[in-house]
Amino acid sequence: MVHYHCSQCGFEFDTHQNLTDAKCPSCGGRVNPTSYDNRFQQGPQFQQQDPYTYYHRPIGVFDEGPSGKSRGVAGLFAILLGYLGVHYFYLGKISGGILCIFLCFITCGFWTFLTVIQGILMLSMSSEEFERKYANTPSSFPLF
Q1: Based on CB atoms within 10 Å of each CB, which residue in 14, 93, 98, 141 is the most buried?
Q2: Do 26 and 66 contact (CB within 8 A), yes or no?
Q3: Which has the closest alpha carbon to 14: 66, 53, 40, 67?
Q4: So where are the chain's domains?
Q5: For residues 133, 139, 143 and 144, what is the CA-based torsion angle, rounded to 10 degrees?
Q6: Helix 94-106 vs helix 111-124: angle between axes, to the nearest 10 degrees?
Q7: Which residues contact 32 (CB under 8 A, 6 or more apart)?
Q8: How confident is the model at residue 47 (pLDDT cuts 50, 70, 90)?
Q9: Distance CA 69, CA 90 (A)
Q10: Which pTM value belongs to this model?
Q11: Calpha distance 129→127 (Å, rounded)
């Protein structure tokens, strides 16, 4: 078993494969292999969760990702209540939600069509892509 450590977000995971050019399942950043034995010498914080079983099981649309947000819930919010910015509020992007309400009033409701498209894209993308584009981005108003 090979243990990997992400140099960007600090996430650690194990896999049975020796990956070349491996990417972090949490943020998509570059990961470095580390010694599996060093993991247990560094302390109990590495033994709290087993991310291998979390990331390598089938992830459904409504399952929560590492950020605690579900792409299915966010997508449905975008489709049904996107004009109110509810999907941005759900993702913790308060300024994006307020801007969404403002854009709906300015465009006389035309903004609703764009949020429906955004919701469909959220439902159709992979969980890793959703985490990278919407949940873990520093942007307060991520679009497509």
Answers
A1: 93
A2: yes
A3: 53
A4: 2-55, 71-135
A5: -30
A6: 140
A7: 4, 5, 7
A8: very low
A9: 8
A10: 0.59
A11: 5
